[in-house]
């Protein structure tokens, strides 16, 4: 009996010992995990990415944080450069479907300091991703550039245009509403006017778009206008005319995807012809009722255009919507454009004059007096040849766009 009790006591003592060893071991593990977590947090806090994230996620007195959608594209990258130069904090969101990561890299090199610029790869059609971006970042304003933007393509793929332009603008507005971001600068277009009979086009000219691109933008404008009636948002809608040129200091340029060449704009086609990528220029229509028979357009330099955005941002007021044409107010014929391009490049580009292309209207140019009056903006780079010279300089140094700078 005695022996039995003793051995029972002994085995209990052994178990107690084992139990206490196990507890000590467990405690050690917890302490080690806590130590490792603390080390990880310390290391993360030291890394520039961590400080960048926190800077972007908090409002800071005196610093305005602008979300630039489509900031890897032609106009969005130039706008981001200007905003960064003006000390704004910039977040670019782009799905790189049309833009260039090379343009973002140029900006990142120019503004490497933490809290200045971040790039987020995302598709604006992804509602959850957009919501996450808005919940993780403290935006003060949105410049919404992201869009597919070719008239011809829009007639072939209308649903893509309504989805990308109209539906995605709705996604942005819903996110702005949910996360209380109160200022929107919207990229619209003279294509929303369609074929007005009377020139120049004022903001009061009836909007009767004639292709899915113009219609999708007009619908997006209408959604924005309806929404602003119920909120205290500050909205500026800018209707651009034909955008040309590039950064005068040669840091950025226009580099559409080679597969979009066919859809492309006249400046791109001129440069491609000057470089021999295409055999020459095809000018469609020489019997329009204009002074030389070719179509007339209003060409606005991208440097002036982004200046209009900054002025619009500066003057945006709660509960108010400003709608402005952004053009030079001067129409130039296609023939004049081609002559300016020949002079700017120094190359005698071959030109073929062909029949009219269906759907092209004879004459489009803006009346920019409202934006001059209300935002004190006017085009400063209205010399076509000079704008093309600047753009050509970048094109010559970047034969494959941002791919081989
Ligand atoms: N270029 C012009 O002459 C002109 C004239 C009038 C209006 N606009 C408007 O200006 C804006 C910018 O045009 P651009 O010439 O710089 O075009 P762009 O193609 O160079 O840039 C558009 C950018 O938006 C991005 N994007 C497109 N869909 C997206 C999506 N679903 N999610 C995220 N990113 C997306 C593209 O990748 C690209 O970087 C567009 O809204 C366009 O309609 C342009």
TrEMBL record:
EC number(s) recorded for this UniProt protein: 5.1.3.5
From the record, give the transmembrane residue ranges: 26-44
Note whether NAD occurs among the keywords: yes
Q: Which residues form the NAD(P)-binding domain?
A: 67-381
Q: What is this enzyme's class at the first EC digit?
A: isomerase
Q: Check the record and name the Pfam families matching this protein.
A: GDP_Man_Dehyd
InterPro entries per the record? NAD(P)-bd_dom (IPR016040), NAD(P)-bd_dom_sf (IPR036291), UDP_G4E (IPR005886)
Task: Give the UniProt record's GO annotations in the biological process aspect.
Answer: galactose metabolic process
The record ties this protein, via Gene3D superfamilies, to: NAD(P)-binding Rossmann-like Domain, UDP-galactose 4-epimerase, domain 1
For molecular function, the Gene Ontology terms on record are: UDP-arabinose 4-epimerase activity; UDP-glucose 4-epimerase activity
Which keywords annotate this record? Answer: Carbohydrate metabolism, Isomerase, Membrane, NAD, Transmembrane, Transmembrane helix
Q: Which cofactor does it need?
A: NAD(+)
Name the family the entry cites. Answer: Belongs to the NAD(P)-dependent epimerase/dehydratase family.
Q: Which PANTHER family match?
A: UDP-ARABINOSE 4-EPIMERASE 1, UDP-GLUCOSE 4-EPIMERASE
Q: What is this protein called?
A: UDP-arabinose 4-epimerase 1
Upper classification of the source organism reads: Eukaryota, Viridiplantae, Streptophyta, Embryophyta, Tracheophyta
């Amino acid at each position: 009996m005695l022996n039995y009790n003793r051995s029972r006591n002994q085995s209990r003592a052994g178990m107690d010992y084992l139990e206490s060893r196990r507890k000590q071991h467990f405690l050690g593990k917890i302490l080690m995990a806590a130590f490792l977590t603390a080390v990880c947090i310390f290391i993360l806090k030291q890394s520039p990415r961590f400080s960048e994230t926190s800077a972007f996620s908090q409002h800071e007195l005196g610093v305005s944080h602008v979300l630039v959608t489509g900031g890897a594209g032609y106009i969005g990258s130039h706008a981001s450069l200007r905003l960064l130069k003006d000390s704004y904090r910039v977040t670019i969101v782009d799905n790189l479907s049309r833009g260039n990561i090379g343009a973002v890299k140029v900006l990142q090199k120019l503004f490497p300091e933490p809290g200045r610029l971040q790039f987020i790869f995302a598709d604006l059609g992804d509602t959850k991703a957009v919501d996450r971006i808005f919940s993780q970042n403290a935006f003060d304003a949105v410049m919404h550039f992201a869009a597919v933007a070719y008239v011809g393509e829009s007639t072939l793929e209308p649903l893509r245009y309504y989805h990308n332009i109209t539906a995605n603008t709705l996604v942005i507005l819903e996110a702005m509403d949910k996360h209380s971001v109160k200022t929107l600068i919207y990229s619209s277009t003279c294509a929303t006017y369609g074929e007005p009979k009377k020139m120049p086009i004022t903001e009061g000219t009836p909007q009767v778009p004639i292709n899915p691109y113009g219609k999708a933008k007009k619908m997006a404008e209408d959604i924005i206008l309806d929404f602003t009636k119920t909120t205290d948002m500050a909205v500026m809608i800018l209707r651009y005319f034909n955008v040309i040129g590039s950064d005068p200091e040669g840091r950025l340029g226009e580099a559409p995807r080679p597969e979009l060449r066919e859809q492309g704009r006249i400046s791109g086609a001129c440069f491609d012809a000057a470089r021999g990528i295409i055999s020459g220029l095809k000018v469609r229509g020489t019997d329009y009722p204009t002074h030389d028979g070719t179509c007339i357009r209003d060409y606005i330099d991208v440097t002036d255009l982004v200046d209009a955005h900054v002025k619009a941002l500066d003057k945006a007021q709660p509960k108010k919507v400003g709608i402005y044409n952004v053009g030079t107010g001067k129409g130039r014929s296609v023939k004049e454009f081609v002559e300016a391009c020949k002079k700017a490049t120094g190359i005698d580009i071959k030109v073929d004059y062909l029949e009219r292309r269906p759907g092209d209207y004879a004459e489009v140019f803006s009346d920019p007096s409202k934006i001059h009056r209300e935002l004190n903006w006017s085009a400063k780079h209205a010399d076509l040849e000079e704008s093309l010279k600047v753009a050509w300089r970048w094109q010559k140094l970047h034969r494959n766009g941002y791919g081989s700078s």
